[in-house]
Amino acid sequence: MRLALRLLAVVAPQLACSAVSAQTGPRAYTFHTVVGVDTVAIEQVVRTTERIDVDLFSRAQGVRFVFTVELGEDGTAVSVENRFFRQPADEEPTQVVRGSFRGDSVDVEIRAERDRDITVATVPGAVPWVPRSNALLEQILLQSDRASGGIDSVPVFNIGNGQTTFATVEWLDGGDARLQFAEAELRVEVSGDGEFVTGSMVGSPGRVVRENAFGGMPVEPVDYGPPAGAPYSADEVAVRTSTGLSLSGTLTQPIPDEQPWPAVVTITGSGAQDRDERTPGLGGYRPYWELADTLARLGVATLRLDDRGVNDSDEGPQPATLWDEADDIRAAVDFVRRRPEVDGERVFLVGHSQGGLIAPLVAADDPTLAGIVLLAAPGYDGNRTLEAQRWANLDPRFVEEHERADAVMRSRRADSARAVWDPALRALMTHDPIPVARRVHVPVLILQGSTDRQVTPEQADTLAAALRSAGNTDVTVRHFDGLNHFLLPDARGYSSGYGALRSTELPREVLGVVADWILARACTAGEPNCEIARERPSVRELRGVE
Fold first, then answer.
1. Same domain flag for 164 and 263
2. pTM for the full model?
Protein backbone atom coordinates (compact mmCIF):
# COMPACT_ATOMS: atom_id res chain seq x y z
CA MET A 1 0.00 0.00 0.00
CA ARG A 2 1.43 3.39 -0.99
CA LEU A 3 1.96 6.11 1.60
CA ALA A 4 0.59 9.61 1.18
CA LEU A 5 3.00 11.93 -0.64
CA ARG A 6 4.75 14.70 1.23
CA LEU A 7 5.22 17.67 -1.13
CA LEU A 8 8.30 19.74 -0.34
CA ALA A 9 8.56 23.44 -1.11
CA VAL A 10 12.29 23.41 -0.34
CA VAL A 11 14.05 20.07 -0.77
CA ALA A 12 16.76 18.69 1.50
CA PRO A 13 19.61 20.99 0.39
CA GLN A 14 22.06 19.81 3.04
CA LEU A 15 21.73 16.20 1.94
CA ALA A 16 22.25 17.09 -1.71
CA CYS A 17 25.35 19.12 -0.94
CA SER A 18 26.93 16.49 1.31
CA ALA A 19 26.27 13.70 -1.18
CA VAL A 20 27.90 15.56 -4.04
CA SER A 21 30.85 16.84 -2.03
CA ALA A 22 31.70 13.34 -0.78
CA GLN A 23 33.73 12.98 -3.98
CA THR A 24 36.76 15.19 -4.56
CA GLY A 25 37.28 16.82 -7.95
CA PRO A 26 35.18 16.32 -11.08
CA ARG A 27 33.67 12.93 -11.84
CA ALA A 28 33.28 11.77 -15.44
CA TYR A 29 30.95 8.91 -16.32
CA THR A 30 28.56 7.62 -18.98
CA PHE A 31 24.95 6.48 -18.78
CA HIS A 32 23.58 3.98 -21.32
CA THR A 33 19.79 3.74 -21.62
CA VAL A 34 18.89 0.32 -23.00
CA VAL A 35 15.44 -0.99 -23.98
CA GLY A 36 15.63 -4.72 -24.56
CA VAL A 37 18.83 -4.99 -26.57
CA ASP A 38 18.42 -1.53 -28.06
CA THR A 39 20.71 1.27 -26.78
CA VAL A 40 18.35 4.22 -27.14
CA ALA A 41 20.51 6.91 -25.50
CA ILE A 42 24.12 7.58 -24.48
CA GLU A 43 24.81 10.33 -21.96
CA GLN A 44 28.28 11.62 -21.04
CA VAL A 45 28.41 13.44 -17.70
CA VAL A 46 30.99 15.55 -15.85
CA ARG A 47 29.84 16.50 -12.35
CA THR A 48 31.37 18.77 -9.71
CA THR A 49 29.86 20.40 -6.64
CA GLU A 50 29.29 23.57 -8.72
CA ARG A 51 27.91 22.25 -12.01
CA ILE A 52 26.79 19.36 -14.20
CA ASP A 53 27.94 19.19 -17.84
CA VAL A 54 26.11 16.73 -20.08
CA ASP A 55 26.32 15.59 -23.70
CA LEU A 56 23.25 13.44 -24.41
CA PHE A 57 22.71 11.60 -27.70
CA SER A 58 19.30 10.02 -28.18
CA ARG A 59 19.78 7.25 -30.74
CA ALA A 60 16.03 6.63 -30.87
CA GLN A 61 15.21 10.22 -31.81
CA GLY A 62 18.45 10.90 -33.67
CA VAL A 63 18.92 14.18 -31.74
CA ARG A 64 21.49 15.58 -29.32
CA PHE A 65 21.23 17.73 -26.19
CA VAL A 66 24.28 19.50 -24.73
CA PHE A 67 23.48 21.23 -21.47
CA THR A 68 24.98 22.68 -18.31
CA VAL A 69 23.34 23.06 -14.90
CA GLU A 70 24.97 25.50 -12.47
CA LEU A 71 24.45 24.49 -8.83
CA GLY A 72 24.26 26.73 -5.77
CA GLU A 73 25.83 26.12 -2.38
CA ASP A 74 22.76 24.12 -1.34
CA GLY A 75 23.16 21.73 -4.30
CA THR A 76 20.06 22.93 -6.20
CA ALA A 77 19.97 24.48 -9.66
CA VAL A 78 20.83 28.15 -10.10
CA SER A 79 20.77 28.18 -13.89
CA VAL A 80 20.54 25.86 -16.89
CA GLU A 81 21.56 26.19 -20.53
CA ASN A 82 20.44 23.58 -23.04
CA ARG A 83 21.58 23.44 -26.67
CA PHE A 84 19.41 21.27 -28.91
CA PHE A 85 20.87 19.77 -32.11
CA ARG A 86 18.34 18.33 -34.56
CA GLN A 87 21.17 16.40 -36.26
CA PRO A 88 23.86 15.04 -33.91
CA ALA A 89 26.70 16.11 -36.22
CA ASP A 90 25.44 19.71 -36.56
CA GLU A 91 27.94 22.37 -35.49
CA GLU A 92 25.28 24.95 -34.60
CA PRO A 93 22.30 24.17 -32.34
CA THR A 94 18.77 24.45 -33.65
CA GLN A 95 17.63 25.94 -30.34
CA VAL A 96 19.27 27.32 -27.20
CA VAL A 97 17.27 27.62 -23.97
CA ARG A 98 18.63 29.37 -20.87
CA GLY A 99 16.90 29.43 -17.52
CA SER A 100 17.77 31.37 -14.35
CA PHE A 101 16.06 30.20 -11.14
CA ARG A 102 14.88 32.88 -8.72
CA GLY A 103 12.94 31.45 -5.78
CA ASP A 104 9.54 30.45 -7.14
CA SER A 105 10.13 31.53 -10.74
CA VAL A 106 12.42 30.92 -13.72
CA ASP A 107 13.54 33.54 -16.24
CA VAL A 108 13.68 31.71 -19.57
CA GLU A 109 15.44 32.83 -22.77
CA ILE A 110 14.66 30.84 -25.93
CA ARG A 111 16.90 31.47 -28.92
CA ALA A 112 15.67 29.79 -32.12
CA GLU A 113 13.88 30.85 -35.28
CA ARG A 114 11.60 32.97 -33.08
CA ASP A 115 13.33 34.35 -29.98
CA ARG A 116 11.40 34.66 -26.74
CA ASP A 117 12.02 35.88 -23.18
CA ILE A 118 9.50 34.74 -20.55
CA THR A 119 9.19 34.29 -16.79
CA VAL A 120 7.53 31.09 -15.58
CA ALA A 121 6.36 30.12 -12.11
CA THR A 122 7.90 27.06 -10.47
CA VAL A 123 8.65 25.59 -7.04
CA PRO A 124 11.83 26.54 -5.13
CA GLY A 125 14.53 23.90 -5.56
CA ALA A 126 13.11 22.52 -8.81
CA VAL A 127 15.37 20.25 -10.86
CA PRO A 128 15.59 21.36 -14.53
CA TRP A 129 14.53 18.58 -16.90
CA VAL A 130 15.86 17.56 -20.32
CA PRO A 131 14.28 14.47 -21.98
CA ARG A 132 16.00 11.12 -21.34
CA SER A 133 18.60 12.58 -18.97
CA ASN A 134 19.73 10.12 -16.33
CA ALA A 135 22.11 12.74 -14.94
CA LEU A 136 19.03 14.78 -13.97
CA LEU A 137 17.30 11.69 -12.57
CA GLU A 138 20.43 11.36 -10.43
CA GLN A 139 19.99 14.99 -9.40
CA ILE A 140 16.41 14.22 -8.34
CA LEU A 141 17.73 11.39 -6.15
CA LEU A 142 20.38 13.67 -4.64
CA GLN A 143 17.75 16.27 -3.75
CA SER A 144 15.36 13.75 -2.22
CA ASP A 145 15.24 13.31 1.56
CA ARG A 146 16.99 9.94 1.69
CA ALA A 147 17.21 10.02 5.48
CA SER A 148 13.42 9.90 5.73
CA GLY A 149 13.34 6.28 4.56
CA GLY A 150 9.87 6.84 3.12
CA ILE A 151 8.29 8.53 0.12
CA ASP A 152 9.39 11.97 -0.98
CA SER A 153 8.49 14.33 -3.85
CA VAL A 154 10.93 16.53 -5.74
CA PRO A 155 9.77 19.38 -8.02
CA VAL A 156 10.93 19.16 -11.64
CA PHE A 157 10.87 22.08 -14.11
CA ASN A 158 10.60 21.07 -17.78
CA ILE A 159 12.61 23.63 -19.74
CA GLY A 160 10.91 22.50 -22.94
CA ASN A 161 7.32 23.40 -21.97
CA GLY A 162 7.75 25.53 -18.83
CA GLN A 163 5.69 23.20 -16.64
CA THR A 164 6.53 22.07 -13.11
CA THR A 165 5.61 18.56 -12.03
CA PHE A 166 6.77 16.30 -9.20
CA ALA A 167 8.94 13.20 -9.24
CA THR A 168 8.18 10.62 -6.56
CA VAL A 169 11.07 8.89 -4.79
CA GLU A 170 10.42 5.93 -2.51
CA TRP A 171 13.48 4.91 -0.50
CA LEU A 172 13.71 1.16 0.01
CA ASP A 173 15.53 -1.09 2.44
CA GLY A 174 19.22 -1.20 1.65
CA GLY A 175 19.35 2.38 0.31
CA ASP A 176 17.99 1.74 -3.18
CA ALA A 177 15.07 3.76 -4.51
CA ARG A 178 11.96 3.55 -6.60
CA LEU A 179 11.63 6.64 -8.79
CA GLN A 180 8.48 7.61 -10.68
CA PHE A 181 8.39 10.57 -13.05
CA ALA A 182 5.94 11.26 -15.88
CA GLU A 183 5.16 7.88 -17.49
CA ALA A 184 8.40 6.23 -16.33
CA GLU A 185 9.02 4.21 -13.21
CA LEU A 186 12.46 2.87 -12.27
CA ARG A 187 13.96 0.70 -9.57
CA VAL A 188 17.34 2.37 -8.95
CA GLU A 189 20.49 1.11 -7.27
CA VAL A 190 22.02 4.04 -5.38
CA SER A 191 25.55 4.19 -4.00
CA GLY A 192 26.39 5.46 -0.53
CA ASP A 193 27.35 8.80 -2.10
CA GLY A 194 23.97 9.12 -3.80
CA GLU A 195 25.17 8.09 -7.27
CA PHE A 196 22.70 6.55 -9.72
CA VAL A 197 24.46 3.22 -10.38
CA THR A 198 21.94 1.13 -12.34
CA GLY A 199 18.21 1.24 -12.92
CA SER A 200 15.54 -1.05 -14.31
CA MET A 201 12.33 0.29 -15.84
CA VAL A 202 9.32 -1.19 -14.13
CA GLY A 203 6.93 -2.81 -16.59
CA SER A 204 9.29 -2.79 -19.57
CA PRO A 205 12.58 -4.42 -20.63
CA GLY A 206 14.41 -1.10 -20.18
CA ARG A 207 17.38 -0.39 -17.97
CA VAL A 208 20.04 2.22 -17.29
CA VAL A 209 23.68 1.28 -16.91
CA ARG A 210 26.40 3.58 -15.56
CA GLU A 211 30.01 3.28 -16.69
CA ASN A 212 32.63 5.12 -14.68
CA ALA A 213 34.40 6.16 -17.85
CA PHE A 214 33.88 9.04 -20.22
CA GLY A 215 32.85 8.16 -23.74
CA GLY A 216 30.23 6.63 -25.99
CA MET A 217 29.81 3.00 -26.88
CA PRO A 218 32.32 1.42 -27.07
CA VAL A 219 34.28 3.44 -24.50
CA GLU A 220 37.55 1.81 -25.54
CA PRO A 221 38.63 0.29 -28.87
CA VAL A 222 37.63 -3.34 -29.26
CA ASP A 223 39.81 -6.07 -30.73
CA TYR A 224 37.59 -7.96 -33.15
CA GLY A 225 40.35 -10.32 -34.25
CA PRO A 226 41.03 -13.94 -33.27
CA PRO A 227 42.73 -14.97 -30.02
CA ALA A 228 46.45 -15.66 -30.08
CA GLY A 229 47.28 -18.92 -31.81
CA ALA A 230 43.84 -19.38 -33.35
CA PRO A 231 43.78 -21.61 -36.46
CA TYR A 232 42.02 -18.98 -38.57
CA SER A 233 42.36 -15.40 -39.80
CA ALA A 234 40.19 -12.29 -39.51
CA ASP A 235 40.19 -9.43 -42.01
CA GLU A 236 38.73 -5.95 -41.55
CA VAL A 237 36.30 -5.33 -44.42
CA ALA A 238 33.83 -2.71 -45.67
CA VAL A 239 30.50 -3.62 -47.29
CA ARG A 240 28.90 -1.16 -49.71
CA THR A 241 25.09 -1.09 -49.53
CA SER A 242 22.62 -0.43 -52.35
CA THR A 243 22.22 3.15 -51.07
CA GLY A 244 25.98 3.80 -51.09
CA LEU A 245 26.66 3.42 -47.36
CA SER A 246 29.84 1.73 -46.16
CA LEU A 247 29.47 -0.75 -43.26
CA SER A 248 32.57 -1.84 -41.34
CA GLY A 249 33.02 -5.43 -40.25
CA THR A 250 35.19 -8.51 -39.83
CA LEU A 251 35.39 -11.52 -42.12
CA THR A 252 36.64 -14.54 -40.17
CA GLN A 253 38.04 -17.42 -42.27
CA PRO A 254 39.68 -20.76 -41.63
CA ILE A 255 43.32 -20.93 -42.65
CA PRO A 256 43.08 -21.21 -46.47
CA ASP A 257 44.15 -24.79 -46.96
CA GLU A 258 40.74 -25.98 -48.18
CA GLN A 259 38.45 -23.70 -50.16
CA PRO A 260 35.82 -22.54 -50.87
CA TRP A 261 34.24 -22.29 -47.43
CA PRO A 262 30.60 -22.18 -46.31
CA ALA A 263 29.87 -18.76 -44.79
CA VAL A 264 27.59 -17.17 -42.20
CA VAL A 265 26.36 -13.56 -42.09
CA THR A 266 25.28 -12.45 -38.59
CA ILE A 267 22.45 -9.97 -37.92
CA THR A 268 22.29 -7.96 -34.70
CA GLY A 269 19.21 -7.08 -32.68
CA SER A 270 17.44 -3.73 -32.45
CA GLY A 271 19.29 -0.46 -32.07
CA ALA A 272 22.79 0.51 -33.12
CA GLN A 273 25.09 -2.36 -32.13
CA ASP A 274 28.58 -3.37 -33.05
CA ARG A 275 29.50 -6.49 -35.03
CA ASP A 276 29.80 -8.64 -31.90
CA GLU A 277 26.39 -7.49 -30.54
CA ARG A 278 28.02 -6.20 -27.38
CA THR A 279 25.36 -4.89 -24.98
CA PRO A 280 25.73 -2.27 -22.20
CA GLY A 281 25.18 -3.83 -18.79
CA LEU A 282 26.29 -7.27 -19.99
CA GLY A 283 30.03 -6.91 -19.68
CA GLY A 284 31.85 -9.49 -21.80
CA TYR A 285 28.76 -10.41 -23.84
CA ARG A 286 30.05 -10.92 -27.41
CA PRO A 287 27.89 -13.70 -28.87
CA TYR A 288 28.86 -13.23 -32.50
CA TRP A 289 32.57 -13.19 -31.70
CA GLU A 290 32.05 -16.53 -29.90
CA LEU A 291 30.06 -17.92 -32.83
CA ALA A 292 32.62 -16.77 -35.41
CA ASP A 293 35.44 -18.32 -33.36
CA THR A 294 33.54 -21.60 -33.07
CA LEU A 295 32.62 -21.80 -36.75
CA ALA A 296 36.11 -20.89 -38.00
CA ARG A 297 37.54 -23.84 -36.08
CA LEU A 298 35.07 -26.05 -37.94
CA GLY A 299 35.74 -24.73 -41.44
CA VAL A 300 33.06 -22.03 -41.79
CA ALA A 301 33.68 -18.35 -42.54
CA THR A 302 31.68 -15.60 -40.77
CA LEU A 303 30.94 -11.98 -41.71
CA ARG A 304 30.08 -9.76 -38.74
CA LEU A 305 29.00 -6.19 -39.48
CA ASP A 306 28.69 -3.02 -37.41
CA ASP A 307 25.27 -1.43 -37.62
CA ARG A 308 24.85 1.98 -39.22
CA GLY A 309 26.61 4.70 -37.22
CA VAL A 310 28.74 2.28 -35.17
CA ASN A 311 32.55 2.31 -35.41
CA ASP A 312 33.44 3.11 -39.04
CA SER A 313 30.00 2.34 -40.50
CA ASP A 314 28.26 5.25 -42.21
CA GLU A 315 25.26 6.49 -40.27
CA GLY A 316 22.89 7.17 -43.12
CA PRO A 317 19.29 8.33 -42.52
CA GLN A 318 18.22 7.71 -38.94
CA PRO A 319 16.52 5.85 -37.49
CA ALA A 320 16.92 2.85 -39.81
CA THR A 321 13.81 0.69 -40.26
CA LEU A 322 13.53 -3.08 -40.62
CA TRP A 323 13.46 -2.65 -44.39
CA ASP A 324 16.65 -0.57 -44.37
CA GLU A 325 18.44 -3.16 -42.27
CA ALA A 326 17.21 -6.00 -44.51
CA ASP A 327 18.74 -4.19 -47.49
CA ASP A 328 22.03 -3.92 -45.58
CA ILE A 329 22.04 -7.68 -45.01
CA ARG A 330 21.30 -8.35 -48.69
CA ALA A 331 24.40 -6.30 -49.50
CA ALA A 332 26.37 -8.36 -46.97
CA VAL A 333 25.23 -11.61 -48.62
CA ASP A 334 26.28 -10.29 -52.03
CA PHE A 335 29.65 -9.30 -50.54
CA VAL A 336 30.50 -12.78 -49.21
CA ARG A 337 29.26 -14.48 -52.38
CA ARG A 338 31.74 -12.43 -54.40
CA ARG A 339 34.67 -13.57 -52.25
CA PRO A 340 36.65 -16.30 -54.04
CA GLU A 341 37.31 -18.15 -50.78
CA VAL A 342 33.55 -18.51 -50.06
CA ASP A 343 31.14 -20.96 -51.67
CA GLY A 344 28.26 -18.70 -52.70
CA GLU A 345 25.78 -21.61 -52.66
CA ARG A 346 26.45 -22.28 -48.97
CA VAL A 347 25.67 -18.96 -47.27
CA PHE A 348 23.66 -18.90 -44.02
CA LEU A 349 22.12 -16.10 -41.96
CA VAL A 350 22.10 -15.98 -38.14
CA GLY A 351 19.84 -13.35 -36.56
CA HIS A 352 19.13 -12.57 -32.90
CA SER A 353 15.96 -10.87 -31.61
CA GLN A 354 15.10 -8.19 -34.21
CA GLY A 355 17.77 -9.83 -36.36
CA GLY A 356 15.43 -12.82 -36.28
CA LEU A 357 12.85 -10.67 -38.09
CA ILE A 358 15.34 -9.47 -40.68
CA ALA A 359 16.72 -12.91 -41.65
CA PRO A 360 13.31 -14.19 -42.88
CA LEU A 361 12.74 -10.95 -44.82
CA VAL A 362 15.96 -11.63 -46.73
CA ALA A 363 15.38 -15.39 -47.07
CA ALA A 364 11.82 -14.93 -48.38
CA ASP A 365 13.26 -13.22 -51.45
CA ASP A 366 16.41 -15.36 -51.75
CA PRO A 367 15.69 -19.11 -51.92
CA THR A 368 19.35 -19.77 -52.79
CA LEU A 369 20.42 -19.22 -49.17
CA ALA A 370 21.59 -22.42 -47.51
CA GLY A 371 19.58 -21.74 -44.34
CA ILE A 372 18.79 -19.29 -41.54
CA VAL A 373 19.21 -19.52 -37.77
CA LEU A 374 16.78 -17.50 -35.62
CA LEU A 375 17.79 -16.79 -32.00
CA ALA A 376 14.92 -15.57 -29.80
CA ALA A 377 13.01 -14.35 -32.86
CA PRO A 378 9.49 -12.86 -32.46
CA GLY A 379 6.57 -14.93 -33.73
CA TYR A 380 3.93 -12.26 -33.07
CA ASP A 381 3.34 -8.92 -34.74
CA GLY A 382 5.15 -6.03 -33.07
CA ASN A 383 2.23 -4.73 -31.01
CA ARG A 384 1.42 -8.19 -29.66
CA THR A 385 5.10 -8.89 -28.94
CA LEU A 386 5.39 -5.65 -26.97
CA GLU A 387 2.20 -6.39 -25.04
CA ALA A 388 3.37 -9.89 -24.12
CA GLN A 389 6.70 -8.37 -23.15
CA ARG A 390 5.08 -5.76 -20.90
CA TRP A 391 3.24 -8.33 -18.81
CA ALA A 392 5.97 -10.99 -18.77
CA ASN A 393 8.65 -8.53 -17.65
CA LEU A 394 6.84 -7.27 -14.53
CA ASP A 395 9.27 -8.36 -11.84
CA PRO A 396 7.16 -9.17 -8.74
CA ARG A 397 10.03 -7.99 -6.52
CA PHE A 398 9.44 -4.44 -7.79
CA VAL A 399 5.80 -4.40 -8.95
CA GLU A 400 3.01 -5.46 -6.63
CA GLU A 401 0.04 -7.36 -8.05
CA HIS A 402 -2.35 -4.42 -7.80
CA GLU A 403 0.14 -2.18 -9.66
CA ARG A 404 0.59 -4.41 -12.71
CA ALA A 405 -2.18 -2.94 -14.87
CA ASP A 406 -1.00 0.64 -14.21
CA ALA A 407 2.60 -0.29 -15.07
CA VAL A 408 1.51 -1.86 -18.36
CA MET A 409 -0.62 1.18 -19.22
CA ARG A 410 2.33 3.52 -18.63
CA SER A 411 4.47 1.38 -20.90
CA ARG A 412 1.82 1.41 -23.63
CA ARG A 413 1.57 5.20 -23.46
CA ALA A 414 5.36 5.61 -23.60
CA ASP A 415 5.62 3.35 -26.67
CA SER A 416 2.75 5.16 -28.39
CA ALA A 417 4.35 8.54 -27.72
CA ARG A 418 7.71 7.36 -29.02
CA ALA A 419 6.16 5.82 -32.15
CA VAL A 420 4.84 9.24 -33.21
CA TRP A 421 8.36 10.47 -34.01
CA ASP A 422 10.21 7.14 -34.47
CA PRO A 423 9.54 5.49 -37.86
CA ALA A 424 11.69 2.50 -36.90
CA LEU A 425 9.46 1.76 -33.91
CA ARG A 426 6.32 2.25 -36.00
CA ALA A 427 7.63 -0.26 -38.55
CA LEU A 428 8.47 -2.74 -35.80
CA MET A 429 5.07 -2.37 -34.10
CA THR A 430 3.14 -3.03 -37.30
CA HIS A 431 5.34 -5.76 -38.77
CA ASP A 432 3.88 -9.29 -38.76
CA PRO A 433 6.50 -12.06 -39.18
CA ILE A 434 3.95 -14.79 -39.96
CA PRO A 435 3.16 -13.90 -43.62
CA VAL A 436 6.91 -13.51 -44.19
CA ALA A 437 7.61 -16.92 -42.63
CA ARG A 438 5.17 -18.57 -45.03
CA ARG A 439 7.35 -17.38 -47.92
CA VAL A 440 10.57 -18.87 -46.50
CA HIS A 441 11.50 -22.21 -48.08
CA VAL A 442 15.12 -22.60 -46.95
CA PRO A 443 16.13 -24.66 -43.87
CA VAL A 444 15.41 -22.90 -40.56
CA LEU A 445 16.73 -23.46 -37.04
CA ILE A 446 14.92 -21.67 -34.17
CA LEU A 447 16.53 -21.42 -30.72
CA GLN A 448 14.53 -20.17 -27.73
CA GLY A 449 15.25 -19.72 -24.02
CA SER A 450 12.60 -20.78 -21.50
CA THR A 451 13.00 -17.64 -19.32
CA ASP A 452 12.96 -15.14 -22.19
CA ARG A 453 10.64 -12.27 -21.19
CA GLN A 454 11.31 -10.11 -24.25
CA VAL A 455 10.22 -12.72 -26.78
CA THR A 456 7.99 -15.09 -24.84
CA PRO A 457 8.87 -18.78 -25.40
CA GLU A 458 5.65 -19.87 -27.15
CA GLN A 459 6.48 -17.55 -30.05
CA ALA A 460 9.15 -19.99 -31.28
CA ASP A 461 6.50 -22.66 -31.88
CA THR A 462 4.13 -20.12 -33.46
CA LEU A 463 6.87 -19.14 -35.91
CA ALA A 464 7.75 -22.77 -36.66
CA ALA A 465 4.10 -23.62 -37.37
CA ALA A 466 3.87 -20.77 -39.88
CA LEU A 467 7.05 -21.93 -41.62
CA ARG A 468 5.77 -25.50 -41.90
CA SER A 469 2.27 -24.47 -43.00
CA ALA A 470 3.61 -23.36 -46.38
CA GLY A 471 5.43 -26.61 -47.04
CA ASN A 472 8.85 -25.98 -45.48
CA THR A 473 9.93 -29.46 -44.35
CA ASP A 474 13.27 -28.49 -42.77
CA VAL A 475 12.31 -26.54 -39.65
CA THR A 476 13.96 -27.33 -36.32
CA VAL A 477 13.03 -25.80 -32.94
CA ARG A 478 15.16 -26.08 -29.80
CA HIS A 479 14.01 -24.83 -26.40
CA PHE A 480 16.68 -24.35 -23.74
CA ASP A 481 15.73 -24.55 -20.07
CA GLY A 482 16.94 -21.69 -17.91
CA LEU A 483 18.19 -19.40 -20.68
CA ASN A 484 16.99 -15.82 -21.16
CA HIS A 485 16.57 -13.54 -24.19
CA PHE A 486 20.34 -13.37 -24.66
CA LEU A 487 20.53 -17.19 -24.43
CA LEU A 488 22.44 -16.82 -21.17
CA PRO A 489 21.83 -18.82 -17.97
CA ASP A 490 19.18 -16.92 -16.01
CA ALA A 491 16.59 -18.61 -13.82
CA ARG A 492 14.24 -15.59 -13.77
CA GLY A 493 14.85 -13.79 -17.06
CA TYR A 494 13.74 -10.32 -15.93
CA SER A 495 15.59 -7.36 -17.47
CA SER A 496 16.02 -6.00 -13.94
CA GLY A 497 18.44 -8.85 -13.27
CA TYR A 498 20.60 -8.63 -16.40
CA GLY A 499 23.34 -6.70 -14.62
CA ALA A 500 23.75 -9.45 -12.02
CA LEU A 501 24.16 -12.42 -14.37
CA ARG A 502 27.05 -14.67 -13.39
CA SER A 503 28.04 -15.51 -16.95
CA THR A 504 27.87 -13.55 -20.19
CA GLU A 505 29.31 -16.32 -22.37
CA LEU A 506 27.02 -18.35 -24.60
CA PRO A 507 26.60 -21.89 -23.27
CA ARG A 508 28.59 -24.46 -25.21
CA GLU A 509 25.43 -26.39 -25.98
CA VAL A 510 23.94 -23.37 -27.79
CA LEU A 511 27.08 -22.91 -29.89
CA GLY A 512 27.15 -26.64 -30.56
CA VAL A 513 23.55 -26.84 -31.79
CA VAL A 514 24.06 -23.88 -34.16
CA ALA A 515 27.41 -25.06 -35.52
CA ASP A 516 26.39 -28.70 -35.98
CA TRP A 517 23.12 -27.70 -37.69
CA ILE A 518 25.02 -25.47 -40.12
CA LEU A 519 27.64 -28.14 -40.84
CA ALA A 520 24.97 -30.77 -41.47
CA ARG A 521 23.36 -28.56 -44.15
CA ALA A 522 26.60 -27.19 -45.56
CA CYS A 523 27.82 -30.66 -46.45
CA THR A 524 26.08 -33.02 -48.83
CA ALA A 525 27.98 -35.91 -50.36
CA GLY A 526 29.87 -34.89 -53.46
CA GLU A 527 30.13 -31.16 -52.61
CA PRO A 528 33.55 -29.51 -52.12
CA ASN A 529 35.11 -30.04 -48.70
CA CYS A 530 32.16 -32.16 -47.57
CA GLU A 531 34.18 -35.19 -46.56
CA ILE A 532 36.76 -33.00 -44.87
CA ALA A 533 34.04 -31.17 -42.92
CA ARG A 534 32.40 -34.44 -41.94
CA GLU A 535 35.67 -35.56 -40.41
CA ARG A 536 35.94 -32.43 -38.26
CA PRO A 537 34.98 -32.78 -34.58
CA SER A 538 31.68 -31.28 -33.49
CA VAL A 539 31.55 -28.33 -31.10
CA ARG A 540 30.53 -30.72 -28.35
CA GLU A 541 33.76 -32.66 -28.88
CA LEU A 542 35.87 -29.51 -29.25
CA ARG A 543 34.47 -27.91 -26.11
CA GLY A 544 33.83 -30.91 -23.94
CA VAL A 545 30.00 -30.93 -23.97
CA GLU A 546 28.47 -34.29 -23.16
1. no
2. 0.72
